[in-house]
Amino acid sequence: MSVNTLLMSTSARLRDRRGTLERRATASKAVRTSLVSLAGLVGGPVTNQAGEEVGRVVDVVARLYGPDPYPPVTGLILRIGRRRTFLAADAISKVHAGHVRLRTARVDLRDFVRRPGEVLLARDVLDHQLVDVDGVQVTRAADLYLAPLVDRVLLVGVDVSLPTLLRRLGPRRWQARPTPERVLDWQAVAPFAEQATDGPPEVRLRASRTALRRLRPADLADILEDLGRSERQQLLGWLEPEQAADALEEMEPAELENLLREAAPDHAARLVDEMEPDEATDALRDLTPEERENLLRRMPTGEAAELRRLLTHREGTAGGAMTTLLVTAHGDETVAQVRARLAEQAEHRTEIDAVAVVDDHDRLLCDIALFDLAVAEDTSPVADLLVWLAQFGPPVTVHADTPLAEAADQLVAARASSLLVVDDGDRPIGRILADDLLDAMLPERGRLHFRRFLQ
């Protein structure tokens, strides 16, 4: 991808994000001027219609995990003397900065019983880790902002700035003062708090799954690396195994090693099984022999056998960095038939950049780049492509025990994006990709995530 194309793509993403934010509640001037700080509200007085104080705010209850884009406040936890009690939201007349006024002089106070999807905002969300889906980063809630509407109060935003933390340490009159210029819209946030609700998982996870599904694997990898142990295991549970595996392939080796050790063995084995063979092999190499075997025993027999075979190749060799995912073809097949076989491997598109053509004894004849297949006629026999490609010489190959430095030299000389790995009988057994070669030879540089580069 050229620099201009990359910058244009990035600009388009930023415009899309800005358009999305402008449609959100916190972009409304009326909402922003009426925001109420949760940190400033906790500890504040609750007065009845006559202006008499009936208690103090201990916490605010909201239905965080439900169908509403902005969680509605369902009640307050009050401290009246030494007693803590629940006040339903329909008794609230007005929520001010640091103060709540009730509709009537008489209130119906009851014991608090948490309903599905409800959370205590101060206890369960404030100061907890969150994922900013728009900014693609892990952050921490320094304050939460409520917006009083005509008939209810909504949670609309979260403040993640350091000055807000300092504000909360200051005098009471500072604590109740919101700073809306630093607010993240709630729709851009996916919270993490396992203790936040006793409701069913499908209620708890619905909103966050929708938001996180939009993220790229590299972005998810960054988030997983930044989260704490319990939070990232929860995030992994939210993702489909295929999406989680894609993210794991983008993680730093040390972080991935820790993640696999933290996960339940059955879950870790399933994640490794979903990874591409070369990436899975790298992940398993970093574990102890006992940990590695524990995961392999929990995988399907065929996949485990393949990974064990890959693990027999030494690190620093072509065999130690190759993937065994190959698409092969024969000369009597048509281009259309080969394309159909490629379409069946769409989920592995990042691991396939060419098709190996073999004879009836599986010996390598040619390596056809996907571009050459793309521009060929559907009805053309693969044999015709072999004749045309013969003018460029035989395909460049390496053996499994070829040192990576030598493989890199051959890759550069061939000006290719991958090299086939063959056995002593010239039969393809794997492919080493350029990016995997770089990762193996330059482990100290880490993985280059474009988002982090921008930050």
Automatic annotation (TrEMBL):
A GO molecular-function annotation: magnesium ion transmembrane transporter activity
Any Gene Ontology CC annotation: membrane
Keyword Transmembrane helix: no
Sequence ranges assigned to domain CBS in this UniProt record: 389-448
Pfam families referenced in this protein's UniProt entry, alphabetically: CBS, MgtE_N
Record keywords: CBS domain
Record's protein name: Magnesium transporter MgtE
